Every structure is written in structure tokens, then in C-alpha cells.
């Protein structure tokens, strides 16, 4: 049976493209301008935070978030999961922090709160959580412990737009949060990302970081005045406060984002329904189906083989290939980052073995596309095929 099922389909629709065409007909300025500002405001309102800064990717959001953190708090240890995207760990290393790893909770694929709390030391500068594949991983215990110890929480929500904890959206709990709008995510601006925060000081640094570290990008007259007075030899238009980057996005992305945001919540409802149907019809003796779905917003189907059996795994992969179902082994980011060459060089040998839950996902976890227009019958057909393995 051919299912012809790509990782993502139709994520930018004709409606989005028509919005863009209408915009382009006005012969507008295409570099960062009014639509970027409006998208940021609308995004902040949707998320429930004060400020957002639109950038050119989720990886850029990670990069400038950690750069700003370094300038505000100095370097030290950052607790991160080995199951995440490469840029979460790369941004930690690139900014001179030491990554400290914590294993995941198999029910939500996010760092286990016990493990995180156990890894906190007096050098911990932040906990950089990744909400994997739409699952919530926050707990009251983690939030309270970090508050008590005055350790900032950074939330990577690149895979979990719209997921909630206790009625509030993920990405509105920490000091700062990061989102991605790459094609294969809940919504897409082709490439794109967002940094969101309630913290005025962090917001101002992030705005400057996005544009070469330039002071005129700040919205604060106090900051601009301070730098201008302290540096009378510099043109006020060209004061660079930080050795930063250009990670701006364009009006084109913002027009697409504004159009997409209007239907994000409806799409998430459809995707969650799809995922529940998928889990309900999978054979729970062969696959894990007991995820903690409360508050989740899943843009992908998680397929995790229950027992570590490589023969069974080969069968499952062959079935999916034969049916034309695109998949990614290792789930988020290809599994255990500690097995990747860039980390093996700097971590203790065989460090990856210390994270058995991530190791299981590395070898026996998959993700498959979950898009709003998936037909029920197709989901049931896929379950039937997988259950025959
Ligand atoms: C958890 C996580 N963080 C960051 C990123 C990076 O986002 P982008 O691909 O937009 O650079 C991704 C990308 O898929 C991701 O899954």
C-alpha cells in the first residue's frame, strides 16, 4: 500500500501566498519594517508575553538568546537535554558556556525535572529546556526550584507552538523563549524564528543583537542617550554595543507569519486530534502509546518502538519506506546529540551512555509528519501497516 506521506505538506497555503502577492503589488519595502513590527505584536499577544523579536531562524533565536544571557549574567554552566536540536547546544558552546546534560522523561521526551534539579550547581547560569515534538515538560517543582535558586529558565518552543501548562502557553514561563517557523513546524514563514520575553532589559539587548549589536535598534531612549553621551566620538547612528550578528528577517516572512498565525490554533486542534487517533490505533504491545498528552500540541507523530530490538526496527523502517512514509529516526534532532562529532570532541568519551532514555529514542524513536489535512483513513492505514511489523 502506497501512502505517499511526506514529513510536511501544504504548510504554506494559497491563502498565505495571496496575502503575500497582495502585499507585493504595493511595491513595498521588503527589508524589516511595519509587517515585522506587527507580526511581533500579534505574536506577543497570541503567546501572552510583552515583547517578541522576529529573526531569520530558530537557530538564530537560540544564538542571540545565549549571547544576551552571557552579556547579562556572565558564563558558567547551562543545563540542556541531549535530545534537542543541534543549535540549542551549539549556542551554549559558541557563547562560552559549559553544557551540562540531563536525561529525559520518556512520557514527554523533555528533561526529567529530577535530573535537572540534581544537576544544578553554584555555577548554573540557566536551564535551557526543549519541549520536544509538542509535549509539555514543565512541572511546578521545576519552576519553583528555579525561582528559589534564582536560576533563569530559557524555553525552546521551536517544536511546540501552542502547547500549554496550567492554562498558559509554553514560552511564557521563562526569562525568554525561542520559536522556529521553518517549513516543517506548526507554522512557517519559509525560514524564521522568534525570541519572546517579558523582561524589558532582555528585550532591548535582543533587539540590538538582532542587528549587529547596534544601539539605535533599542526602543529605549535611556539606553540610546547613555551610549551617545558615553561615546561622543561616535555617530549616534553607528554605535555597536555588542559584537553581535545580523539575524534579521524580512517583510516577506512577516506577511506570511501574520497570515499563518490566524489559523495556528485551529490547525493545532486538528493536529492533536490526528495524533490521538494515531496513538489510539497503534499496537501498544509494540509501540509506546502512553505519552503525557496534557497540554501538548504535536506537529509530528511520535513513533517509539517499545523494546530495543534492531531486527524489529529494520522491519518497521522497511514498511514505512515501502509505503512512501517519510520519517526521521532519532526524533528531535536525530537522537542523542552526545553521539555527534561536534560534541564527542569536547565531552568525556562515552558520555552519551549516561542518558539511557535518550539512547532509546536515538535508536528506536521516530517522527512522522502530522499536518492538519491528514485524512483519518490514511492514519488508520499507517497504524495497520505498523501493527503488522
Ligand atoms: C528544538 C529546536 N530548536 C531549534 C531549532 C532550529 O530552528 P531553525 O530550523 O528554524 O533554525 C529547531 C529546528 O527544527 C528545533 O527543533
Report on this model:
This protein has 389 residues and is α/β, with parallel strands linked by helices. 41% of the residues lie in helices and 13% in strands. It contains 13 helices and twelve strands. The strands form three sheets. It has a seven-stranded mixed β-sheet. Helix 2 runs parallel beside helix 9, helix 3 packs across helix 7 and helix 9 (251-281) crosses helix 13. The longest helix is centred in the last third of the chain and has 31 residues, at 251-281. The model has no long low-confidence stretch (mean pLDDT 97). Pyridoxal-5'-phosphate (PLP) is lined by residues 57-59, 62, 84-85, 87-88, 130, 156, 158-159, 180, 182, 193, 332. Pyridoxal-5'-phosphate binds at residues 57-59, 62, 84-85, 87-88, 130, 156, 158-159, 180, 182, 193, 332.
Which SSEs are present, and which pair or pack?
Elements: H1 14-25, H2 34-47, E1 51-55, H3 58-73, E2 77-80, H4 86-94, E3 98-101, H5 113-119, E4 124-130, H6 140-149, E5 153-156, E6 164-165, E7 168-169, E8 176-180, E9 193-197, H7 200-210, H8 221-230, H9 251-281, E10 300-304, H10 310-322, E11 327-329, H11 341-344, H12 356-364, E12 365-369, H13 376-388
Parallel strand pairs: 2-3, 2-4, 4-5, 5-8
Antiparallel strand pairs: 1-9, 6-7, 8-9, 10-12, 11-12
Helix pairs in contact: 1-9, 2-9, 3-4, 3-7, 9-13
Amino acid at each position: 500500500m502506497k501512502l505517499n506521506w511526506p514529513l510536511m505538506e501544504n504548510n504554506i497555503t494559497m491563502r498565505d501566498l495571496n496575502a503575500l502577492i497582495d502585499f507585493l503589488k504595493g511595491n513595498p519595502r521588503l527589508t524589516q519594517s511595519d509587517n515585522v513590527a506587527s507580526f511581533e505584536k500579534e505574536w506577543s499577544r497570541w503567546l501572552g508575553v510583552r515583547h517578541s523579536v522576529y529573526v531569520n531562524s530558530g537557530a538564530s533565536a537560540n544564538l542571540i538568546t545565549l549571547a544576551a544571557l552571557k552579556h547579562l549574567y556572565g558564563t558558567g554552566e547551562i543545563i540542556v537535554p541531549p535530545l534537542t536540536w543541534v543549535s540549542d547546544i551549539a549556542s551554549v558552546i559558541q557563547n562560552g558556556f559549559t553544557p551540562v546534560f540531563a536525561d529525559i522523561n520518556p512520557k514527554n521526551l523533555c528533561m526529567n525535572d529530577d535530573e535537572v534539579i540534581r544537576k544544578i550547581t553554584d555555577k548554573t547560569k540557566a536551564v535551557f529546556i526543549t519541549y520536544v515534538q509538542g509535549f509539555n515538560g514543565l512541572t511546578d517543582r521545576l519552576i519553583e526550584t528555579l525561582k528559589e535558586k534564582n536560576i533563569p529558565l530559557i524555553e525552546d518552543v521551536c517544536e511546540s507552538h501552542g502547547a500549554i501548562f496550567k492554562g498558559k502557553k509554553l514560552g511564557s514561563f521563562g526569562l525568554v523563549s525561542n520559536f522556529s517557523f521553518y517549513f516543517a513546524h506548526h507554522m512557517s514563514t519559509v525560514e524564521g524564528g522568534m525570541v519572546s520575553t517579558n523582561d524589558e532589559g532582555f528585550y532591548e539587548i535582543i533587539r540590538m543583537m538582532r542587528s549587529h549589536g547596534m544601539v539605535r535598534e533599542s526602543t529605549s531612549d535611556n539606553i540610546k542617550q547613555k551610549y551617545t553621551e558615553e561615546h561622543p566620538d561616535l555617530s549616534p547612528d553607528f554605535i555597536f554595543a555588542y559584537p553581535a550578528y545580523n539575524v534579521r528577517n524580512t517583510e516577506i516572512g512577516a506577511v506570511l507569519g501574520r497570515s499563518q498565525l490566524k489559523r495556528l490554533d485551529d490547525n493545532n486542534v486538528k493536529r492533536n486530534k490526528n495524533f490521538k487517533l494515531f496513538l489510539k490505533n497503534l499496537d501498544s504491545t509494540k509501540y509506546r502509546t502512553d505519552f503525557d498528552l496534557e497540554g501538548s500540541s504535536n506537529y509530528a507523530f511520535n513513533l517509539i518502538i517499545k523494546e530495543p530490538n534492531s531486527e524489529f526496527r529494520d522491519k518497521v523502517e522497511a514498511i514505512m519506506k515501502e509505503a512512501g512514509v517519510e520519517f526521521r529516526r532519532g526524533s528531535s534532532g536525530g537522537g542523542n546529540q552526545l553521539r555527534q562529532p561536534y560534541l564527542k570532541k569536547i565531552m568525556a568519551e562515552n558520555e552519551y551512555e549516561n542518558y539511557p532514555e535518550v539512547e532509546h529514542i536515538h535508536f528506536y524513536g521516530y517522527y512522522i509528519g502530522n499536518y492538519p489535512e491528514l485524512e483519518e483513513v490514511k492514519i488508520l492505514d499507517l497504524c495497520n501497516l505498523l501493527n503488522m511489523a
